[in-house]
Amino acid sequence: MTSNSTPAIKISAMIAAIAAPIVFVASLPWLQNQPDALVYLCTGIAATITVVGSFVVAIYEHRKLDEWHRAAAGFSNQWGWIAGSGLVALLLSLPPFHGLVMSVAGAVAGVADPDRTLVLIAFTLGFMAVVVAQMACTVVLSIVWRARKSRAA
Question: What is the residue range of 136's domain?
Answer without folding.
Answer: 67-153
